[in-house]
Design brief:
The protein is an alpha/beta fold and 482 residues long. The chain folds into 2 domains: 239 residues, Spore Coat Polysaccharide Biosynthesis Protein SpsA, Chain A; 209 residues, Hexapeptide repeat proteins (UDP N-Acetylglucosamine Acyltransferase, domain 1). Strand 8 and strand 9 form a beta hairpin. The radius of gyration is 32 Å and the shape is elongated. The mean pLDDT is 95. Bound molecules: uridine-diphosphate-N-acetylglucosamine (UD1) and magnesium ion. The site of uridine-diphosphate-N-acetylglucosamine has 32 residues, from helix 4 and strand 10.
Length: 482
């Protein structure tokens, strides 16, 4: 059991059955998008995936309920691999309504922690703190609040008195008076509720507000009027609760996550010049003494070794890079592997299934796909290698092309160890070039080449001496006659 899961009984005395409900059914109208809000990505992952990741550090996955509605199937599919439960809110009638539809699912629990699916920076420690504070205060409702420099857009927390733990109401910005709007303590959209008390009173919510919705925030005044205890705890890091109602907020959250990731790598011994220009996903690993130049993207499950240099404008996804590798400017790599001491680029494109061997060189405008380039082999200029097996110590000349596709199926090219492929060679697959062979430049190789031989497959050169001179003289004569 993880640390934050352990303490849930400590403050309250008895063991509490705790569930987490994540609000994720909304449309996200303010994003002006055809995609559901919680699937918009920040830091390389959907908003909802971040919140689920934090939740799973606090309670077991089987106690997490994502409330989905708008584009429910898409949302379900995107996060199904996490193993959380789903509750369908067919009509999105507000954050209060989202919990009304969970009555049955939550019945077996004592406490529900409600998280906002659009606030991805929340940390497990903060959720656990909210849970423990709620238990210690024996509250009916506990809300996480924050002091924000710019509180606009958020609901404001109205305490019974400035120093009291207890809350009288939450006022949504649209309903707030000028004085209330100036209050810096905002509602984060994260709550803890006693499940029996929540469902005893939830039907008292009304829709007489700006949006005609059931606001979960109104539970504060409903419960307070019913003499139930409503308290607030202030988040220690106000940025953790930031939500993403607008594109500008999404961009801000993405920036914060990326910068945090870069700073974590820098802390671990990686040099990143101009980190605010680099896009590095949270799952990426980079070894010490690697240098990352400006405008580099390292995405997905990319792993970069130690002492590498990744030069500017390279976009590298799901690729494993060994130690002491140089990636020169402008490379694009997907689902590939580059082994130690290789040099790749500038402008190399590694499509899925490329494996560049130890110390191998791949140069400018070289494209590979499902291709293995052996140790120390070189393909330095203007080449396409598809479905190709290249042995060790091979030199692939400029402009070499494997013709791997006949319009219906893909075929394999094998170039064995030590082969020299002359420039501008065309290899029509399936074809095999035996160990140590030479292929003359500009050959079109259609048949297998035995080991240690020379293959020349081009027409014999014909030279017609004096031909050009005669042609010129004839033209000059014609011009004079006219
Ligand atoms: C909400 C709070 C506001 C708080 C802010 C913090 C209400 C009425 N207001 O406002 O006090 O300061 O969060 O970020 O709750 N959702 C559903 N079903 C619905 C409607 C919404 O699941 O019917 C989900 C949304 O997908 C979203 C979350 O609930 O993930 C919050 O909804 P949103 O519309 O973003 O509320 P805010 O206006 O941000
Ligand atoms: Mg919101």
């Amino acid at each position: 059991m993880r640390k934050s899961q352990k303490s849930h009984s400590a403050a309250g005395g008895s063991i509490l059955r705790v569930a987490i409900a994540i609000l994720a059914a909304g449309k996200g109208t303010r994003l002006k998008s055809k995609h559901p809000k919680v699937l918009h990505e920040v830091g390389g992952k959907p908003l909802l995936a971040h919140v689920i990741a934090a939740a799973t550090e606090v309670v077991p996955t089987q106690d997490i309920y994502a409330i989905i509605g708008h584009e429910a199937e898409r949302v379900r599919k995107a996060v199904a691999h996490t193993g959380v439960n789903f509750v369908l809110q067919t009509e999105q009638r507000g954050t209060g309504h989202a919990l009304m539809v969970c009555r049955e699912a939550l019945a077996p629990y004592d406490v529900v922690l409600v998280l906002s699916g659009d606030a991805p920076l929340i940390k497990a420690e903060t959720i656990a703190r909210l849970r423990d504070f709620h238990a210690a205060k024996k509250a009916a409702m506990t809300l996480l609040s924050a002091q924000l420099h710019d509180p606009s857009g958020y609901g404001r927390v109205i305490r019974k008195s400035p120093k009291s733990d207890e809350v009288k109401a939450i006022v949504e910005e649209k309903a707030a008076t000028a004085t209330q709007k100036k209050m810096g303590e905002i509602n984060s959209g994260f709550y803890a509720f006693s499940v029996p008390i929540l469902f005893r009173y939830i039907d008292r919510l009304r829709t007489d507000n700006h949006h005609g919705e059931f606001y979960l925030t109104d539970m504060a005044s409903v419960l307070q009027k019913a003499k139930q205890r409503v308290v607030a705890i202030v988040a220690s890091d106000p940025h953790e609760i930031l939500g993403s109602n607008t594109r500008a907020e999404l961009v801000d959250l993405d920036h914060r996550l990326r910068l945090a990731k870069s700073l974590q790598l820098i802390d671990n011994g990686v040099t990143i010049f101009y980190p605010h220009t680099c896009v590095i996903d949270s799952g990426v690993e980079v070894g010490a003494d690697t240098v990352i130049e400006p405008f580099v993207q390292l995405l997905g499950n990319t792993r970069v070794g130690s002492d590498c240099r990744i030069r500017s404008y390279s976009v590298i996804r799901n690729t494993v890079i060994g130690d002491r590798v140089s990636v020169l400017p402008g490379c694009v790599m997907d689902d590939s592997e580059v082994k130690a001491e290789a040099i790749v680029g500038p402008y190399s494109r590694l499509r899925p299934g490329s494996e560049i061997g130890e110390g191998a060189h791949l140069g400018n405008f070289v494209e590979t796909k499902k291709t293995r380039l052996g140790k120390g082999s070189k393909a330095n200029h203007l080449t396409y290698l598809g479905d190709t097996e290249v042995g060790e110590g091979v030199n692939v000349g400029a402009g070499t092309i494997t013709c791997n596709y006949d319009g219906v199926s893909k075929h394999k090219t094998v170039i064995e160890d030590g082969v020299f492929v002359g420039s501008d060679t065309i290899l029509i697959a399936p074809v095999r070039v035996g160990k140590g062979s030479y292929i003359a430049a500009a050959s079109c190789i259609t048949d297998d080449v035995p080991a240690d031989s020379l293959a020349i497959a081009r027409t014999q050169q014909t030279v017609k001496e004096g031909w050009a001179k005669e042609k010129r003289e004839a033209r000059a004569k014609d011009a004079k006659a006219k």
